[in-house]
């Protein structure tokens, strides 16, 4: 694709914003006492802050990692309705998933840029965005067709791992791919939020008209099908993030960054400082950073808060409860996690105060049934937190 600068000021704002578009988070997914009134709900730009510490399921119930020996990483096919509904059984606020648009204009949920398969022993790859919907859905398990007398035929589904190996995409609980529209229709409850990552290839330079066309296809489905479901957008692609903010003013838009773990030609992707700058210039709601980047540079959290931006994180460390709790103490607004059962329950235990702890904070001694003192969640003074923040960057290096 030829290089063409994206001038968001030249892009007309869409006129498809509906009156019933969701502006606030559904209170049924949040604990009592969360303020969802003005200032506490979802706004569209800088100044938006989630009304509580958010837990977001990565690709639903968690990503599939075939290099990991942990069986949880291959328990359920990622980015499927099954995965989203499995995640919804736990006290999550959102599920995160990746959206691409097929050649014939249908938004589908799939992470990788390429689909791998084989034919007569020969492995081949096809770019998702160069497939039509029917071709995309032909890979992997198939839905039963009640009108057909013969079983559905599927094409083998393989995956390329980070170390370059091509492996069979085998999970304990498999399911066909799905479209964005099917996710809105089939994921329950409707109060479970969708964190829609706008997926683009890091190695492709996109023309403005292509980006606008893709985003229009996605936004049409969102506004037609959301029906009050909380939605936030995010993207590693800076121009896509700016454009989706320009094209609509209902749902918050976050800029994703690996905070300098990898160097890109586009300098806007290379640090938390650049991410903050992009958000402020483009009116975005906040940053979603790789968690190690935040731990290496904890001072950036203060800068983000001073800028009235929101900060979420992603990464392997978010599957460690203690790392998640530290982020809560630092003022980070939420985490994207793979181990949704363990982390969501840990967050509830660590962050949501029990009745007994509320009474203890009021000066009453916290006692067990036998009269012994019960240990509550860890409490840190500002001085202790400052020390931990200085220590963490050193620990992350090892």
Series of H and E elements: EHEEEEHEEHEHEHEHEHHEHEHHH
The helix-and-strand class reads: alpha/beta
Question: Going across the major beta sheet, what is the strand order?
Answer: 1-2-8-9-10-11-12-13
The count of helical stretches stands at 12
Q: What share of residues are in beta strands?
A: 15-25%
Question: Kindly state the mean pLDDT as a whole number?
Answer: 84
Give the number of DSSP strands: 13
Q: Mind describing the biggest β-sheet? A: 8 strands, parallel, barrel
How widely separated are the two ends? Answer: 41 Å
- The shape is globular
Task: Report helical residue fraction.
Answer: 25-40%
Low-confidence stretches: 1-6, 12-28, 30-43
Instruction: Please state the CA-atom Rg, rounded to the nearest Å.
Output: 22 Å
Keywords: Glycerol metabolism, Hydrolase
Family: Belongs to the glycerophosphoryl diester phosphodiesterase family.
Protein name: glycerophosphodiester phosphodiesterase
EC number: 3.1.4.46
Could you characterize what this model shows?
- InterPro entries: GDPD, GP_PDE_dom, PLC-like_Pdiesterase_TIM-brl.
- Keywords: Glycerol metabolism, Hydrolase.
- By secondary structure, this protein is of the alpha/beta class.
- It is 29% helix and 16% strand.
- The strands form three sheets. An eight-stranded parallel beta barrel has the order 1-2-8-9-10-11-12-13, surrounded by six helices. The chain has a two-stranded antiparallel sheet with strand order 4-5. The protein has a two-stranded antiparallel sheet with strand order 6-7.
- A hairpin with a 5-residue loop joins strand 6 and strand 7.
- Helix 9 (321-330) packs across helix 10.
- The radius of gyration is 22 Å and the shape is globular.
- The model is unreliable at 1-6, 12-28 and 30-43 (pLDDT under 50).
């Amino acid at each position: 694709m030829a290089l063409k600068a994206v001038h968001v000021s030249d892009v007309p704002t869409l006129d498809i914003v509906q009156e019933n578009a969701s502006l606030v988070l559904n209170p049924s997914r949040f604990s009592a006492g969360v303020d969802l009134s003005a200032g506490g709900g979802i706004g569209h730009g800088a100044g938006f802050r989630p009304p509580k510490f958010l837990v977001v399921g990565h690709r639903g119930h968690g990503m599939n990692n075939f290099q990991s020996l942990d069986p949880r990483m291959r328990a359920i096919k990622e980015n499927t309705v099954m995965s989203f509904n499995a995640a919804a059984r736990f006290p999550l606020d959102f599920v995160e998933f990746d959206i691409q648009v097929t050649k014939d204009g249908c938004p589908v949920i799939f992470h990788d840029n390429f689909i791998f398969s084989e034919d007569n022993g020969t492995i081949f790859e096809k770019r998702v965005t160069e497939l039509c919907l029917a071709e995309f859905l032909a890979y992997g398990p198939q839905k039963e067709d009640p009108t057909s007398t013969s079983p559905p035929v599927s094409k083998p589904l393989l995956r390329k791992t980070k170390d370059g190996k091509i492996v069979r995409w085998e999970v304990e609980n498999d399911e066909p791919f799905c479209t964005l529209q099917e996710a809105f229709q089939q994921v329950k409850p409707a109060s479970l939020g969708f964190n829609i990552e706008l997926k683009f290839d890091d190695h492709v330079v996109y023309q403005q008209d292509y980006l606008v066309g893709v985003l229009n296809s996605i936004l049409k489905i969102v506004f037609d099908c959301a029906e009050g479901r909380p939605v936030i957008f995010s993207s590693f692609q800076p121009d896509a993030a700016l454009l989706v903010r320009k094209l609509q003013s209902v749902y918050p838009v976050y800029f994703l960054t690996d905070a300098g773990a990898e160097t890109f030609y586009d300098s806007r992707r290379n640090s938390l400082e650049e991410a903050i700058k992009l958000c402020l210039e483009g009116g975005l709601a906040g940053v979603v950073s790789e968690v190690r980047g935040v731990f290496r540079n904890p001072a950036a959290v203060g800068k983000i808060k001073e800028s009235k931006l929101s900060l979420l994180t992603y990464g392997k460390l978010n599957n460690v409860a203690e790392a998640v709790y530290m982020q809560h103490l630092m003022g980070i607004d939420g985490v994207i996690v793979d181990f949704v059962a363990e982390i969501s329950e840990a967050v509830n235990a660590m962050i949501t105060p029990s009745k007994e702890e509320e009474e203890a904070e009021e000066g009453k001694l916290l006692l067990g049934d036998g009269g012994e003192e019960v240990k509550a969640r860890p409490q840190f003074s500002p001085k202790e937190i400052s020390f931990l923040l200085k220590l963490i960057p050193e620990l992350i290096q090892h």
